[in-house]
Structure formats: structure tokens, C-alpha cells
Design a protein that fits this description.
The complex is a heterodimer of chains A (about 725) and B (about 70). Chain A has about 725 residues and is α/β, with parallel strands linked by helices. Helix content of chain A is about 65%, strand content about 10%. Among the domains of chain A are: about 5-165, Rossmann fold (3-Layer(aba) Sandwich); about 180-270, Orthogonal Bundle (Helix Hairpins), CATH 1.10.287. Chain B starts with 10 loop residues before the first strand and ends with a strand. The chains are: A alpha/beta (about 725), B alpha+beta (about 70).
């Protein structure tokens, strides 16, 4: 017999152990991508079983199949468009009613279902015993008891899937909504079914029920139906009648009827043998969600994660930096001097290396976040912080990306995926760059140590960070009012029981994150690095050797006339001066330098000259670059660090610089366009260039405005 | 009486969700339906979220969402 291919989707609520089951069923043979056009992760795996090739898809975890959230839309579009042969629905046996709610909705699509009553071991501890055969018979869904983590019960899954598939025409039961509703459902089904072509694509009963639930998405799907006007008319009539008859909205009535049906079925098949008094989760929550200890404990955990990410990550990061330096040096030694060398060594290796060195931080952070999510602590964080975050139009779960943003915007933006509502996620991602990242710290350190006394430096630094936080929060509020209108997503959240994280799941999760980061951002980074290299390199200045020869002679003569002789150290000093002058002249001549000159009128009201302009432009590549550019522009050399006293001195001695300009520059660097790697991640995570351009424009505008106000106010107050 | 008026450890039976649209629907879909019984597990202070146990699981709601659920004490 020839091999047959069948498509199986795995559905289930969040926290049902769905992903563990998926991993166990597919083994190592799965790949991760995104559903077309959205950042909802799509996992698929292939398994051969008997004569069948089984393609398995892991659907997003959802509680329902309305069209309110992206996850739900993705899950149901998958069911409608891909027409899977069988759906495996994973349910948590400890609270089977809520899990059956999704199951009943899937059944309405007319697709054969296999129900897995998962976590039966936990249910047993709760004294819950489910008669799976009787429940299966009652609902028309074959059920199997499993414990995903212990791999128990999984052997029979494929057999059940295949037998369900082969007997697909026998499984014809469906949930009944009671006489009153069924009458209206029938009326609508009759109208829908007039269009035979339409019902080939969409199951009419499902459409009818969704119409009574006021589903906008289904209404628009219906537009292709010939009887559209009649259907809509009937729908409006029915909704009105139901609301009047039941004295509540029809979408609520449908939900209550569904739950009523489920409660009826469960009553007959579920036994609770003992009342459990002690609950481990409740004991933990007594501390974790305590009104007084909860928040401090959370902040401490957050601090710990932060330390782990950036302190523990420092070591592998420095190794990676070393490796990329070595690669750069090696490439530099075998490629002849010239443009190609500069492109490869400075542009590509420098740019890609600059991005990949963050990989250890990202790994550690995602390891920690996976643990927070898998244990169930993430939901508690939302519980603790929601009150505060809600004031700014945000959800409790935005807290993690914001705090992570102090380390690096890239993992912070990626971690916003824990937010399930698209608008919440959009706002959070756009606000993250205001939380001052680690790469900006060298700039602050340099400027603060050059212009402020030691006793002041802590306050100055704190004020910069605080301004960033306030801008982030108030920008969120603005975004909520203007670009992502509407209320923040409802806070109707399950607090799942605490569970030990599954090592395999976390391993996969981290591997996936890394790969995403390297692949997607990598391509953009290469392109962007080449652009920055290009504008700082071209047009090339023809080195005027005679001019520098003359400068050299002048200095040498001056030193000889003063000291009578020329020491080795003097020669080194002169070489350095000459070299820096050449680099500066080349940079001034380059596109970046010209842009600096062009934008000078724009940044003049902020107290910046064209030299600072060039530093701002090169800062697009990465914020640390601002320091080395200032080094070049102030003739100190490009290999300076923020601790280098010569640059501090040079800045202090520059007539243009003063404490006010330094402070305004820090503010500007804090707020303006985030680095290219961050922009690349924004593109990856939000999918549209629109948001990249929005970030560039909005952040620059805010930066300019804030800098302008502070500089002009300072000047009036006589601080300049 | 609305759910938020209850105190810790109070038992209740759900009467009706008074909010329509997405929020009302979402609340109902989590199992907050007529006749379902539950208990208040905790309330965060200063008008923070409320945690209830229904259908053998823990559900948290914001104050204004909890206020849109009519309950009777049992």
C-alpha cells in the first residue's frame, strides 16, 4: 500500500501541556517558522507511522476561537484553510470544563477530533477521576488519558488518530444549544447553504454560530456568499430576539449554552473523590502574591535575571569579541590593503560581529524567561504589575520587556512576544528603546566624567535614566491614545498552577530564539553595516602627503628648537597626531561628515556643532560608536575608551563644549533613533517597515524637542 | 452585588455578566457563566486585581472587570 499523508493539528489551551506533547510526538523532527505575515510561531513536524506520513502542526495555545486575538485567528484560519484531517486537542484534566470549551468549538468545524486528557496524574492528586470512555461517547470525541511529561499514554495517540481518521464519517455528534438557539441557527444555516460553493469552504453550522456570537471576521468572510444580505438581516433579527428572550447579549448566551452542555456531560462522567485541602500553588502564592512581599520579591528576581544576563553573559561575550577580532585581523592580514579590505573587515565582520556578541545575553535572558513562563510565575508578574502598567495603557506583562531594555533593546523587543494582544505588543515594542540600554552607558560615562564633579555624577546618571523611563511610559500612553486606539487588552488571566519546567522544551525554545535572531537580523545587519561603512568611507579623500609632510616638519622643528633633540616618544606622538588628523579630515570629507555639516543648522539650537553631528550619525550603527567617533573628531584617535583621559581633556578644552551641552547630548543619545540592530529587530517583530520609519521619526522628534527645551532653558538660566 | 465587593474567602455563585463586547465575552469564555460557583482567593490592595477560583482553576481579573460580574453570595 502506498504511503498516505495526513495533516494533524494540535490544539489546546495555554498551560495544557500541548507543546510537551507536540515535542514528544514529533521527536527531533520539527521546524519552527512564523505563520504568514504574523509573528505567531508555527511549529511543524513529520512523523511516519504505519502506512502514513503524518504532518503535525502545533497551533497557538488559545482558550477559545473568537477573532479577538491574533493567536485565535491564526488557529482558526489554520483549521479553515489547511483543513487538517484530524485535530488533537490537549486538555488539562484538573479543570476539564474550561478545556472542553475549546474542544467543543473545534468540533463545530466538522473535523474529527481526538481528545487527550492530559495531566491525569495531577488530577488524581486532586481526587479527580474522569471516565474517559463515557465522556468520549457522550461528546462524540474519542478520548485518551495521558501524562505528557512522563510520556505515559502517548503510545496510543497515533493509533487513535488513524482510526479516527479512517472512521471520520462516523463522528457526527455536535453540541446542541437548546431549542431556542437551534431554531435560529437552522434559519441561518438554511440561508448560508443556498450558496453551494461557499459551504465547500466554510462549515455552515460554524458560520451560523459565529454570527450569533457577533464575530466581525466571519461577517467579512460571508461577503462572498450569494445570500449575504438575507443572512445579515436574519442574523440581526436573531441576535435581537435572543437578547430579548434571555435578557443578556447573544454572544454571552451562546457561551453559557456551551458551558451548560459541557457541565452536563462532565457531571455524568467526572468523580471528585476527596476534597484536597493543601495546594502547593496556593502556598507559594501566599508569599509571591503577598501585598507586601510580592513586589519586592519580584523586583529582586528581576534584578537577579538582569545580573545573570549581563554579568554572566560578559564572559562569553568577551570571548566572542575576541574571536571576531581575530577573524577581522586574519581577514585583514590576507586581504590586500584597500577598499575591499575595509569593507570586509570594518563593514561586514565588524557589523555582524557587533551583533552576534549579544547572542550569549539573549540566550541567558531567554533561558530565564522560559523558566518564568513555564513555571507559571509570568502570570503572577502580570498580576503584581498590572495596576501600575494599566495607568499607562499597558498590560502587566509589558514590565519584562521594559526592564530588559535597560540591558539591550534587542532581547527586550523579542521578549515582547509573551504579550498576546497585538496592540499591547506594538506599544511595548515601540516604547522599549526609551529604556536606556547598556551600550549608551559608555557615552554617559565619558561625558559625565569630563564635565561633572564626582559627587554630582550619580545624580546626573540617575536623571538620564529617569527621563528615559518617563518618556517610555508617557509615549506608551500616547501610542495607546493615537496609534493603537482602544482599551488595553482585558486582564482576564489564568493563574496556572506552578509546575516544574520541562528541560527539553526550554532547550528547544532557546535554540529557536537564537536561530531567529541570527537569521533574520543578520541579513539586515549586513546591509546596514555596509551602508554605515559606505557613508563614513566615501567619497575618499586623496591624502595630501606634501601637506602632512610639511606639518610634520613644522612640529619637528618646533620641538628641536625647544628641546634641542627629537626623542622616540616625540616621534610616536607626532605620528599619532598626523594619523588622527588624516582620519578626521577623511571623515569630514565623507558623506557622514557632509551630513554632519548639512544637519548643523538643525542641531545648532540644541547646542551641537557638526562634529557632534557626525558622532550622532555614526551612532546609528551602535551607540558605543559615538565615543570612538568623538575620539576621532577631537583628534585623540579612534581607539579611545570612555576611561581615556585624553578624550575627556580634549572635550573639556573644546570651547564649544560645556556641562550644559554635555547633558543635552546625553539626553539626545538616550532618546534618538535606536541602533541599526534594534531597528532590524523591530522590522522582524512587527513585520512592517512602517514601524521602523515611525521609530526613526518619532524618537528623533522627541529627542530634538527634549534637547531643545533643556538647552534653551539652560541657556536662559545662564548655565551655558 | 458585583464580584469585587466580596472579601477574601467569600463563596459566590455567578448571576450575570453586565459588560458586553469583547471583555464580557472573554470573561464568559473563561467559564464565568450563570450558576457557576467560586471562591475569592485574594484581592491585591489599592484596587489591584482580584483572584478567584472557579471550575478548579485560578482566574484573575482587573477591578473594573470584576465589577461587571454580578454574583450572589452562597
Amino acid at each position: 500500500m502506498a504511503d498516505k499523508t495526513i495533516v494533524v493539528g494540535i490544539a489546546g489551551n495555554p498551560n495544557s501541556g500541548k507543546t510537551t506533547i507536540f515535542n514528544e510526538l514529533t521527536g527531533a523532527h520539527h521546524k519552527v517558522g512564523n505563520y504568514a505575515g504574523v509573528t505567531v510561531e508555527k511549529r511543524e513536524g513529520i512523523r511516519k507511522y504505519k502506512d502514513y506520513t503524518i504532518k503535525i502542526y502545533d497551533l497557538p495555545g488559545t482558550y477559545s476561537l473568537t477573532s479577538y486575538s491574533l493567536d485565535e485567528l491564526v488557529a482558526r484560519d489554520f483549521i479553515i484553510d489547511e483543513k487538517p484531517d484530524v485535530i488533537i486537542d490537549v486538555m488539562d484534566s484538573t479543570n476539564i470544563q474550561r478545556h472542553l470549551y475549546l474542544c467543543m468549538q473545534i468540533q463545530e468545524f466538522g473535523i474529527p477530533i481526538v481528545g487527550l486528557l492530559n495531566m491525569t496524574d495531577e488530577a488524581k492528586q486532586h481526587g479527580i477521576e474522569i471516565d474517559s470512555l463515557a465522556l468520549g461517547d457522550l461528546l462524540g470525541i474519542p478520548m485518551l488519558k495521558t501524562v505528557g511529561r512522563k510520556k505515559s499514554g502517548l503510545d496510543g495517540v497515533f493509533d487513535l488518530v488513524l482510526s479516527t481518521y479512517e472512521n471520520k464519517n462516523k463522528q457526527k455528534k455536535c453540541l446542541l444549544y437548546g431549542n431556542e438557539l437551534e431554531m435560529h441557527i437552522d434559519k441561518i444555516i438554511n440561508l448560508i447553504s443556498k450558496d453551494e460553493k461557499f459551504i465547500k469552504n466554510y462549515p455552515p453550522r460554524w458560520i451560523a454560530v459565529k454570527l450569533l456570537e457577533k464575530d466581525q471576521n466571519v461577517c467579512s468572510k460571508l461577503k462572498t456568499n450569494e445570500a449575504y444580505d438575507q443572512i445579515i438581516h436574519q442574523k440581526d433579527e436573531s441576535i435581537k430576539w435572543i437578547a430579548g428572550h434571555f435578557n443578556r447579549d447573544s454572544e454571552i448566551v451562546v457561551t453559557e449554552q456551551r458551558y451548560g452542555y459541557i457541565h452536563g456531560a462532565v457531571k455524568e462522567t467526572l468523580k471528585v473523590s476527596l476534597e484536597t485541602k493543601f495546594s502547593f500553588s496556593e502556598a507559594v502564592d501566599k508569599v509571591v502574591l503577598n501585598n507586601y512581599f510580592g513586589l519586592p520579591l519580584f523586583l529582586f528576581i528581576m534584578w537577579g535575571i538582569f545580573q545573570l544576563t549581563f554579568k554572566l553573559g560578559e564572559f562569553p561575550m568577551s570571548i566572542l569579541e575576541l574571536i571576531f577580532n581575530q577573524i577581522g585581523n586574519f581577514a585583514g592580514s590576507i586581504i590586500p590593503d584597500g577598499l575591499i579590505k575595509s569593507l570586509i573587515v570594518d563593514g561586514i565582520i565588524g557589523g555582524v560581529g557587533g551583533m552576534l556578541v549579544f547572542l550569549p545575553n539573549i540566550l541567558i535572558l531567554f533561558f530565564c524567561i522560559s523558566i518564568l513562563e513555564d513555571t507559571g510565575y509570568m502570570a503572577r508578574i502580570a498580576f503584581l504589575t498590572d495596576k501600575f502598567m494599566h495607568k499607562f495603557g499597558l498590560h502587566g506583562q509589558s514590565f519584562i520587556p521594559f526592564v530588559t531594555g535597560f540591558g539591550c533593546s534587542i532581547p527586550a523587543i523579542m521578549s515582547a512576544r509573551t504579550l498576546k494582544n497585538e496592540k499591547d505588543r506594538l506599544i511595548t515594542i515601540l516604547a522599549v528603546p526609551f529604556f536606556s540600554c547598556g551600550a549608551k552607558l559608555p557615552v554617559y560615562t565619558l561625558l559625565i566624567s569630563a564635565f561633572f564633579s564626582e559627587s554630582m555624577s550619580g545624580n546626573i546618571l540617575f536623571s538620564i535614566y529617569m527621563i528615559g523611563i518617563l518618556l517610555g511610559l508617557f509615549s506608551s500612553l500616547l501610542f495607546r491614545k493615537v496609534i493603537a486606539k482602544g482599551i488595553s487588552s482585558p486582564f482576564v488571566m489564568e493563574l496556572p498552577p506552578y509546575r516544574a519546567p520541562a528541560a527539553k522544551g526550554i532547550g528547544w525554545h532557546m535554540a529557536e530564539k537564537c536561530w531567529f535572531y541570527v537569521k533574520k537580523a543578520g541579513t539586515l545587519i549586513v546591509a546596514a553595516s555596509i551602508i554605515v561603512w559606505f557613508i563614513t568611507t566615501f567619497p575618499q579623500l586623496k591624502t595630501d602627503d606634501a601637506k602632512y609632510q610639511k606639518i610634520r616638519m613644522d612640529i619637528e622643528n618646533k620641538i628641536i628648537s625647544e628641546n634641542g633633540l627629537l626623542a622616540d616618544s616625540d616621534i610616536r606622538q607626532i605620528n599619532r597626531i598626523i594619523e588622527v588628523s588624516q582620519v578626521q579630515e577623511a571623515l569630514e570629507y565623507s558623506i557622514a561628515g557632509k551630513i554632519g555639516k548639512i544637519i548643523e543648522p538643525v542641531i545648532k539650537p540644541l547646542g551641537f556643532d557638526w562634529k557632534i553631528g557626525v558622532a550622532i550619525i555614526t551612532g546609528f550603527a551602535a551607540k558605543e560608536v559615538v565615543v570612538s567617533t568623538l575620539g576621532v573628531m577631537y583628534k585623540v584617535g579612534s581607539d579611545v575608551t570612555e576611561e581615556d583621559d585624553s578624550l575627556r581633556g580634549a572635550l573639556r578644552n573644546d570651547p564649544y563644549f560645556n556641562p550644559l551641552v554635555a547633558y543635552v547630548l546625553m539626553l539626545f543619545i538616550l532618546i534618538y533613533v535606536p541602533c541599526i540592530a534594534t531597528l532590524a529587530i523591530i522590522k522582524q517583530e512587527l513585520g512592517k517597515w512602517r514601524w521602523v520609519f515611525f521609530t526613526i521619526f518619532y524618537n528623533s522628534a522627541v529627542a530634538w524637542l527634549v534637547a531643545f527645551i533643556v538647552y534653551q532653558t539652560g541657556k536662559i538660566m545662564g548655565l551655558a | 452585588m458585583n464580584l469585587y465587593k466580596l472579601k477574601k474567602n467569600d463563596s459566590f455563585s455567578i448571576v450575570k455578566i453586565t459588560r458586553s463586547g469583547e471583555i464580557g465575552k472573554r470573561i464568559a469564555e473563561m467559564g464565568v457563566t450563570k450558576g457557576t460557583r467560586g471562591i475569592v482567593v485574594r484581592k491585591a490592595f489599592l484596587g489591584g486585581p482580584i483572584q478567584i477560583k472557579i471550575l478548579n482553576y485560578d482566574l484573575s481579573l482587573r477591578k473594573d472587570e470584576a465589577e461587571s460580574i454580578d454574583v450572589e453570595e452562597v
